[in-house]
């Protein structure tokens, strides 16, 4: 297979970017009022991707472990804060719990990938692999964490009566909270399970498509995508379980009392 790829010119990129006019036309025709949002989103897409492109080009050239770790830490911090900011309910310490869940799940899985899966082929701090892998892991993990945490807080609020009744009847805090926890974890992990069900049949993931366009052999692209899917699934499960259990421990004390008042809507 030819390993070459089509090098896009600025004019070709501009041609693709012009497709946003379709969105603008729909917004104008149906009076959706999305013109300003589309403009801002388009500009941010271009600026952010160009910026990260220049940064990654420099990082790939210098290959300094400290720089790679700093960039990975910044990515993780932004992902944790993004997951936290999406939630409509909160409790004291939720940002810390979210950061811990995002960091622990993504870095554990990344370490496994770099040390166990790519062992003997790449160093643990190789930016060409570490940065894209963490980016894909974080992008999916923060969604799972957001869904799990939002679901468990909603379940605790709407199911307050049932939880407190179980505690009154002598149930432990875990027995009273178990149904809410199980429901939230199912919600958090359903999207990645659905993605795994249809990958390769209904959809071709972005990484695999990018490799194919760059000339990588299809079987090699498939192998990498299999690795990515299982890394994402594992990180999503670890992050979701971690953040939900941290929330559970915040909202139930050692005396098996439900701290309902700790849950408050965010302004």
Number of E strands: 2
Approximate helicity band? over 70%
Unreliable stretches = none
Largest sheet: 2 strands, antiparallel
Description:
The protein has helices at 10-17, 20-29, 35-62, 65-85, 94-117, 127-158, 160-168, 173-198, 206-213, 218-251; strands at 89-90, 264-265. It has 267 residues and is mainly α. The chain has two domains: 1-62, no CATH class; 65-265, no CATH class. A two-stranded antiparallel sheet has the order 1-2. The longest helix is centred in the last third of the chain and has 34 residues, at 218-251. The model has no long low-confidence stretch (mean pLDDT 89).
The gist of it:
The chain is mostly helical and 267 residues long. Helices cover 75% and strands 1% of the residues.
Name a few traits of the molecule.
single chain; mainly alpha; two-stranded antiparallel ribbon; 267 residues; globular
List the helices and strands and how they pair.
Blueprint: H1 10-17, H2 20-29, H3 35-62, H4 65-85, E1 89-90, H5 94-117, H6 127-158, H7 160-168, H8 173-198, H9 206-213, H10 218-251, E2 264-265
Antiparallel strand pairs: 1-2
Helix pairs in contact: 4-5, 4-6, 5-6, 5-10, 6-8, 6-10, 7-8, 8-10, 9-10
